[in-house]
């Protein structure tokens, strides 16, 4: 057989494997960020493989990567769990998020284009509609909230900064989104809508100060409600 053909087939298999591993990694990221797992919850390779409809190998690789990023913990018995979150750790992550996410929206105020502004505005409008429904769909709210934030962050034109923020969301997602799924006052009072409006106006006016004000108000109001509850240990 032509050795050149063998080399080509080998490369194709590697590309397909890498693509599958990346898809599984992204699916697990979404699972964690969307609060579909809770802090301290134990997981297994088989359970994750069955849920994602794939073999254990790409799941194992994705889990290793997520463990290195602090999003999962590998236990001695080959199981894994979502890291526990204390109030002190949550406060620490909040300070880091205020710094990095605030920096992203400041730069977005100066750099975001028309398409980016349109996307943020449309997501804000959709989120307003959903949160004002008699029975809001929490899955839709979580997805649109995340998309709105990252549409703003992407507008910064700083992909390395956005990647750092994604890592932070892997750690806080199980807390902030589990809170929403539990029927938090954040649904009934909807403070995010006001703060998102300020953020959007800052981006539209090219005002870094206003954009950061809206972002900070959003993070702080959510944190205040989460810390006031009994979901996090001291």
TrEMBL record:
Query: Which residue range or ranges hold the HTH gntR-type domain?
Result: 18-85
InterPro entries registered for this protein in UniProt: GntR_C (IPR011711), TF_FadR/GntR_C (IPR008920), Tscrpt_reg_HTH_GntR (IPR000524), WH-like_DNA-bd_sf (IPR036388), WH_DNA-bd_sf (IPR036390)
Q: Which UniProt keywords apply?
A: DNA-binding, Transcription, Transcription regulation
Pfam families linked? FCD (PF07729), GntR (PF00392)
Q: Which CDD domains match?
A: WHTH_GntR
Record's keyword annotation contains Aminoacyl-tRNA synthetase: no
The protein's matches in PROSITE patterns, at most eight in alphabetical order, are given as:
HTH_GNTR (PS50949)
* Matching PANTHER family: HTH-TYPE TRANSCRIPTIONAL REGULATOR MCBR (PTHR43537:SF39), TRANSCRIPTIONAL REGULATOR, GNTR FAMILY (PTHR43537)
What name does the UniProt record give this protein? GntR family transcriptional regulator
Which organism is the protein's source?
Herbaspirillum chlorophenolicum
């Amino acid at each position: 057989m032509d050795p050149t053909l063998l080399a080509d087939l080998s490369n194709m298999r590697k590309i397909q494997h890498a693509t599958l591993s990346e898809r599984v990694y992204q699916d697990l990221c979404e699972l964690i960020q969307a609060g579909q797992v809770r802090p301290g919850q134990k997981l297994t390779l088989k359970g994750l493989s069955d849920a994602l409809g794939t073999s254990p190998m790409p799941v194992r690789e994705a889990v290793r990567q997520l463990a290195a990023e602090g999003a999962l913990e590998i236990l001695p018995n080959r199981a894994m769990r979502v890291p526990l979150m204390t109030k002190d750790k949550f406060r620490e992550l909040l300070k880091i998020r205020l710094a990095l996410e605030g920096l992203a929206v400041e730069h977005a105020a100066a750099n975001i284009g028309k398409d980016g502004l349109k996307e943020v505005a449309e997501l804000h409008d959709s989120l307003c509609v959903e949160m004002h429904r008699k029975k809001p769909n929490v899955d839709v709210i979580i997805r649109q909230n995340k998309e709105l934030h990252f549409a703003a962050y992407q507008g910064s034109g700083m992909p390395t900064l956005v990647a750092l923020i994604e890592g932070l969301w892997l750690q806080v997602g199980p807390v902030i989104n589990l809170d929403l799924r539990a029927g938090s006052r954040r649904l009934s009072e909807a403070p995010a809508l006001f703060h998102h409006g300020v953020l959007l106006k800052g981006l539209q006016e090219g005002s870094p100060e206003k954009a950061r004000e809206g972002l900070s108000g959003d993070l702080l109001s959510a944190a205040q409600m989460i810390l006031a509850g009994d979901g996090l240990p001291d």
